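Single Protein Entry

Contents — chain, fold
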Amino acid sequence: MVRSIFSSVLALVLVGCGQTDFVTYSPTTILAKYGYSIHVPPSSLHGPGNLVWKRQAASSSENQLILGDICSPKFIAFPDSLSRSSAESLDFSKNRDFKFTANGLKKLGLQLSATYLSSVNISFKNTEVQEYSLEDLRSIRNSLGPVCSDLLERQRAKGNAYQVVGAFKADLEYKLTYKRAASAGIARLIQKELAAEFGIDFEGQQRQVGKGLFYGLYLDTL
């Protein structure tokens, strides 16, 4: 479901194919449009088929997921029939770079970042969509051992049991360009503001966040 908070028009600059285009989407709005929530922090955990519960922080966005495992993946029998496809179906090419200028950051409501940063670049490389069929998801649940089955039922009774149906996977990098000096305290506030928008832990001015990370997840309520 597309969250209403992301329905407003957002401005950013998209860099690709050697030219700069002005568009109206950020990575989070693109994924939200197709029903994906942002996995915080992006990691190799909680891929398709996993059984999870939400441990949402009070300060996190309603479109961000902070998850825990109900059952350890080592006790889950994952079918070999995982579907892998191009992320072009989600308006993502295999490699896509987003560049937010200070003006674009303002339009996203990131006032502190816009004051100190001239640009924020976020790169998605080797993007991929992964998904299990409903039949495969049921077979995973039906093959659980007694301990996992009991834990799943307990979480269901609490209304906090989910299964990951699909995921948007990518290698992530970012670069922050400052236009004015910022103290360590201001830098931490900027990192916090950016993390609330993009779900990425911004440490320093340039970093490869990681490879093969699940950035967007689609969950089914159990």
Notes: The CA atoms of residues 76 and 144 lie 7 Å apart. Residues 184-198 form the longest helix (15 residues). Confidence is low (pLDDT under 50) at residues 1-23.
